């Protein structure tokens, strides 16, 4: 388990250099007292492990930018990939307040040769909502301009790169307009928005946070997170405590039928991440969300093995250290 006594720890993602697992995580001081305030004080921390269980914290990866930067408020969740030339790219969400005081989210990146020292791209941001395919502040009744949590992966056929982003469309019901935004790039540096790979739905969610796609035991799956309070009534009725959701698909390129999503965890955990251990088995880690008293907990679980039960991805054995 990874935990910090003096800080709230929540969203996270991994990089694997072949010898060491690198954990990148959001954290903020517990001196804030109210854990809801953590979002606007988030930095990106970094820890390393050889077994996904014992972690050593190292120097932070990123902090928020200056007053005029796209990440002036906070640096939020992302993903890390390595280009063919050996350069590591850490894609992340830059957060700042709009003129009306609501949060605006855009995507930028930093690069590194060794996963330890990162340099922000001076041309950030590299991607943002367009207002037509994806909502902006002027076109949404949602509490923020949702365009965050970039998940970047190589095209399965070797044709460039793909990015999935938490976003919303300007159409559909308020709690059902969350979609998986899509963008493509030939080189990880320049990005072009595409149509979403999911659709808004009466069986859907207001936001599909922290997406990830993988092929688990030969079958594609999309993971995302959403509390049922931000989902359609039909979702709450079927799965009142769902939090991390899985959608089986024919390809990591989608499309994804969000109406078929099934929970892989209850709301005691949030932001599930899949990773393969050194034996090749798929594991799920998540952060501890709601405690017995109903309050926020924080900290990241030990690995939990996952597998298929028919069309559902399920946790085979819950972590003992929740």
From TrEMBL:
What SUPFAM superfamilies does the annotation carry?
Arabinanase/levansucrase/invertase (SSF75005)
The yes or no answer to whether the keyword Hydrolase is present is yes
Task: Tell me where in this chain the Glycosyl hydrolase family 32 N-terminal domain is found.
Answer: 19-230
User: What InterPro entries does the record point to?
Assistant: GH32_Enzymes (IPR051214), Glyco_hydro_32 (IPR001362), Glyco_hydro_32_N (IPR013148), Glyco_hydro_beta-prop_sf (IPR023296)
Transmembrane segment boundaries: none
Q: Which UniProt keywords apply?
A: Glycosidase, Hydrolase
Q: Pfam family example for this protein?
A: Glyco_hydro_32N
Q: What is its EC number?
A: 3.2.1.26
Asked if Hydrolase is a keyword of the record, the answer is yes
Q: What is this protein called?
A: beta-fructofuranosidase
């Amino acid at each position: 388990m990874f935990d910090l006594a003096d800080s709230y720890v929540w969203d996270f993602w991994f990089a694997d250099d072949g010898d060491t697992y690198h954990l990148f995580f959001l954290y903020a001081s517990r001196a804030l007292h109210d854990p809801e305030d953590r979002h606007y004080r988030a930095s990106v921390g970094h820890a390393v492990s050889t077994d996904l269980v014992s972690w050593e914290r190292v120097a932070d990866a990123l902090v928020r930018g200056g007053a005029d930067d796209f990440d002036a408020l906070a640096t939020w969740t992302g993903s890390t990939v390595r280009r063919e030339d050996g350069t590591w790219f850490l894609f992340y969400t830059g957060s700042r307040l709009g003129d009306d005081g609501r949060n605006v989210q855009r995507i930028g990146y930093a690069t590194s040769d060794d996963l330890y020292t990162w340099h922000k791209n001076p041309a950030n941001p590299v991607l943002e909502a367009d207002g037509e395919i994806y909502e902006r502040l002027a076109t949404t009744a949602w509490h923020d301009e949702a365009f965050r949590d970039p998940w970047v992966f190589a095209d399965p056929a070797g044709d460039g790169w793909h990015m999935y982003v938490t976003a919303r469309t300007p159409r559909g019901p308020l709690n059902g307009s969350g979609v998986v935004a899509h963008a493509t790039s030939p080189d990880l540096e320049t990005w072009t928005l595409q149509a979403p790979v999911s659709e808004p739905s009466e069986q859907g969610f207001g936001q599909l946070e922290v997406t990830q796609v993988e092929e688990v035991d030969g079958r594609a799956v999309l993971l995302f997170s959403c509390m049922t309070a931000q989902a359609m009534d039909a979702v709450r009725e079927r799965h009142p405590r769902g939090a991390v959701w899985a959608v089986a698909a024919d390809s990591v390129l989608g499309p994804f039928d969000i109406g078929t999503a099934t929970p892989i965890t209850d709301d005691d955990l949030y932001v599930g991440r899949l990773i393969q251990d050194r034996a090749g088995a798929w594991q799920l880690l998540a952060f501890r969300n709601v405690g017995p008293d109903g309050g926020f907990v924080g900290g990241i679980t030990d690995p939990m093995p996952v597998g298929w039960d028919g069309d559902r991805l399920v946790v085979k054995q819950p972590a003992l250290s929740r």
